[in-house]
Amino acid sequence: MSCMLQLRDIHFSYPNRRPRETISGVTIEVGAGELVALLGPNGSGKSTLLSIALGALKPDRGEVLFDGSPVARFSRRELAQRMAMVAEQRDIRFPMTALEYVLTGRFAYTNALGFDSPGDVEIAMQALSDTDAAQFANRRFNELSSGERQRVTLARALAQQPRLLLLDEPTANADIAHQLSLLDLVRRLTRERNLGALIVTHEINLASEFADRVVLIKDGRLAACGAPIEVMTAESLSSLFETPLFVTRHPQSGAPVVSWKLIGPRKNEQ
Amino acid sequence: MKAESLIERNSNQSLGDSVKSYLTRRRALIVISILLGSLFICAIAALITGSERVAAWQIFPAMISKLTGTASSLSIEQDVIIFSLRLPRIALAVGVGAALAIAGAAFQALLRNPLADPYVLGVSGGAALGSITAIIFASQISFSRPLFGFAGAALATLIVYRLGKREDDPAHLVLAGVVMSTFLSSVIVLMTALADNVKLRNITLWLLGDLSSGATEGLIFVIVAVAAGALVLIPQSRALNLMMIGERDAFAMGVETARVRWVVHLTASLLTGAAVSAGGAIGYVGLVTPHLVRLAAGSDNRLVIPASAIAGALMVLIADTIARTALAPRELPTGAITALIGAPVFIYLLLKSR
User: For site-directed labelling of B31, which of A21, A141, A247, B290 has its Cα 20 to 30 A away?
Assistant: First the structure.
């Protein structure tokens, strides 16, 4: 598999703060058509790694490569045509329609003064319809529910026509139906358009079901990396989250399913 | 195993259905034309309004003969009042209004805060302090007032931004601005104690926003600042659209956020510095006009910035005409009139932002 994004031996620490989120020697690779999930406890450095992949943070040591070239050699626009970020979007403090929001994803392709061309509008509408959000185009972004926002936010990322998606807890605050449909959508995009995807999530069962590979991060270090069925064992996950956990198998897919071990007395046997 | 796919269910929805909810060139041109037309009409109205009345039909032949150098139907007295007193004052009102409105729209997008306004943020206070320093200590240097004003505005912006930068609460930045303004006013009071009496009277008048004493030096600087500000900021308006959503988002979508922040910060400070040093601390123009434009035509900065500039010019022009005619021959400070309109709008926005 060709390697699209490579984070090679990344070292990073925030100046003067959050010593817990120091990254020491992490290597992650994402190939075209591959969905990779980053798992780990709060503060383990997952989002920091995503910001480093995006180029928003510069690693102290190590390098980030896209298609084999250091990302530092790309201009911001060139990079935005290659990778797109999806994160939870809070309220925007100015009135803006969903279509206007998605059209901002065309920034890297258009000149500073121009108005959006019919082509840009068509791409934006197609992106909205790809994420089943076309009916929201005329609605104010702030009026949308969090599940609807996720789809519009993903549509904006698609309007960038990227080859790699970086997703930072895209299903936070979404109910189980929206979580499933969003991850299903992301996986279909990786399959049908050969996109790479790197996703940070706390939904370990969804990661196990949808990811081709999972990367376990603890205290800024790589704890394990590989196919969910190999890596997500009761032992590795219990030590990752410092909590006793069970791992069973999904009845249909056979993917690992994580549940917790009960410690106290059970509620039906007083 | 697959969750019910949501993609197909809506694929037959027509793509053409919703292609009106974004800014088109046509809509931008319509809004700009309406505003320019209103500004022209108001400028003519302001030109013939005042203690010395001139009929509307006389003004155009008079202008043409002024330009061609031939004799006009106006008396010498009328000629002086209209072309040497009112016209420069109208030009200054238009320039000051445009400068403050552009600065307000730019600060709002940059700080992601609809409450941002040069006056509310204390940037006007910084410009005022700079200008006063120039009046007292450096009045012999040409352009010292606008230049010191610019420096004061830039410094005030930087401090308020550092103090008040909080993602979750727009009121926090305003609080920092209020603290800044109060602090700067006390420094200004201390400074005026150093000034002699003639200077003192000028300073007090001008602090409240006063376009009557705007010297040609100030007018030239304001016009240059507005032209430069528009030239710099309009090409940044797409980037500002993205910054309005969030700085990390803008970065991910290809905006050189650090560069845009500096360019916009410096340009908005320059505009405020020029406007305040010429016309005093006229408040709320940068708050009210971008808000009205957004209500009428959406938040796209490609339209909001130029349309606010014209609407701001209109607002200050109307306020200044009221200020010089309402209690004639006495003059009211222009800033008092804009605050009468602006403060309620500010409170409305503050309540809405919670």
Answer: A141
